[in-house]
Amino acid sequence: MGTQDIIDTLAGIEPGSTLDAIRARRLQARENAQKSYLALFEPVDAGDFSLAERAVVAAFATGLHGESPVAAFYRDKLAATADGAPLLDAINAEIERGKTSGPYGAYPAGPLSIENKAGLIYRVSAERKPVLGARLVAALEHAHLLLFQPRDAASADMKALLAAGWSSTGIVTLSQLVAFLSFQVRVVSGLRTLAAANA
Amino acid sequence: MSTVNPPVAFTQDELGWVSWIDPLPEAELTERHYAGLVDRARAKSEYFRLLVRDPEVLEARTKTDKDIFYNVADGLPRAERELAAAATSRYNGCIYCASVHARFASTYSKRRDDVQRLLDEGVGADLGERWNAVVKASVALAATPIAFGPDNIAELRRAGLDDAEIVDVINGAAFFNWANRLMLSLGEPSK
Question: Which terminus of chain B is less hemmed in, N or C, by CB atoms within 10 Å?
Fold first, then answer.
């Protein structure tokens, strides 16, 4: 018996419900969304991206989407990690500073330039840099970029992460974690909306 | 040194993709990596040899992707799952992802001109009631904060989608918020 399905739990899907039956028709997707979660948060090898760092980035990324059962879940996960409490305070403050509306950003110069949309360029506040450290400061700034202005991402952003001590493998997992959470928070929101429409 | 020739418009043409950080060399792939690639042929792709640096995540991601899009025993027609992927990619600004899934949407729907209008005019293009509902729901789900709400559900239902088909829209659109962010941030498209 494995861990309880995280999307079902966060979306409030009960065994035997209509949505449970619908999700069962995409069993591979359901099981592998769960395996994605486990591979990111209970990895076989956390050498390039520690469990504590994963918890910090996840609380930040989901919190930036606004209050939700998903945000609460990852906040609790961070609070439960060793030394998580002071980090959670820092992350809550940074979420407030980073909240905005996306997606925005620029296209390569040309016919799409008329669709360019300016927005917040998020940087961690100077006062919270000491508690977070260089790796997490770079990771949070990158996570914000991915969440709100993904089309602005550039090779220079990879160099910033490498300079802050991230390995190439760590960058891949960091990117997967932020991108996966973008998926998870939306599946949960969508399923909750559908369930409420049927209530 | 490789020359990158980035596209400046959305297109249904086939594009290449160039990584900004080093993929694993094919010669260094082990059985653990091949399990992560799922299809051995993906060892030829720079994108997958980059993602395979974390093989367990790649394997689970790939199998999630395949079931959401290829499992068409029931539920939403493949064309409309691809439409959700293309609309999400258009809205997030992923020219590479949009090219792949616009092509698939055209292939499965035989509505290439309508798909091209989505790319040219953007997510506000009028594509008829059913496609408009799918595009609008995908866009609402891609926004941050998420704007997907009961109006989207009602609109999808009026367009004839049942709950299982609506879940396919949610899955397909949500998945591309994952895929777009990897493609946009780890490298760039090239013509």
Answer: N
ipTM summary value: 0.98
pLDDT single digits (tens) A119-163: 999 999 999 999 999 999 999 999 999 999 999 999 999 999 999
**A33: nearest CB among B54, B64, B186:** B64
Q: CA B8, CA B20: separation in Å to the nearest integer?
A: 19
List Cα–Cα distances, B97 to A157, A189, B44, B94, B135, in angstroms.
Answer: 20, 23, 18, 5, 15
Distance CA A28, CA B151 (A): 29
pTM to 2 decimals? 0.98
Question: Which of the listed CATH numbers 1.10.760, 1.25.40, 1.10.1060, 1.20.1290 matches domain A52-198?
Answer: 1.20.1290
Q: With CA atoms as reference, report the closest residue to B181 among A158, A179, A181, A121.
A: A179
Q: Which of residues 8-37 of B touch A (CB under 8 A)?
A: 8-10, 20-22
Question: Which homologous superfamily does the CATH classification assign to the domain defined by B76-180?
Answer: AhpD-like (1.20.1290.10)
CA distances from B175 to A31, A64, A189, B179, B180 (A): 14, 19, 13, 6, 9
Residues of B whose CB is below 8 A from A197: 150, 153-154
